[in-house]
Design goal:
The protein is α/β, with parallel strands linked by helices. Helices cover about 40% and strands about 25% of the residues. The longest helix is centred in the middle third of the chain and has 15 residues, at about 125-140.
Length: about 230
Amino acid sequence: MTDHKTVYAQQADKYEALIAREDYQGNILRTLQEITPLDGCVALDLGAGTGRLAFLLAPHVKQVRAFDMAEDMLRVCAERLTAGGFTNWQVDVADHRHIPVEDHSADLVVSGWSVSYLAVWNPENWREGLDAWMAEMRRVLRPGGWIVLYESLGTGNAEPIRLPHLEKFYPWLDEMGFQNKWIRTDYRFQSLEEAVDLSGFFFGAELAERVHKENLVILPECTGVWWKKLE
């Protein structure tokens, strides 16, 4: 089984090679723009990783600050934003529950495939971790600010499924009053060899075998989008 903690801490470049192939349809940014205007806002990207969301936000917002626990991921994030010619960004190491920003200083918090780890990696104290995160969001966001979360609803699936390891996270979001929808964020690889290599790297040998057998150069991915406006 893939050790995602090791991937995030030590294999950021290969992780970015995988992520660069996802959402060739452009649905992530399109959905975000449907939920809330981005122009002029201060955005926080939590669990930013190699900068997937921060890079999408940078052309549209006043400022984006990217936070992650893994320094190697933030290294790649900073390299990408610098190469893109953006100057309205900052990266910092931080825990989801302790973001180093002033009270009520942000208009938007986004997080992709990350907040759920507060539950997954802390099964005995999952609710305390998530509730602490929600309290921190109320602290950092201005009244009327938005939270938008992205989370997997199945890799290799054409229709969404609720993943067993997130069985506590999904209903908690409902309890907190998040609205939700699902989108497709399919991977489009440059070759079957690349598809097998990168899918196996992060998702494991079983999916890699299926990718090879079914020639899945385009690998379907279902992604849930949850959003909430703070009053």
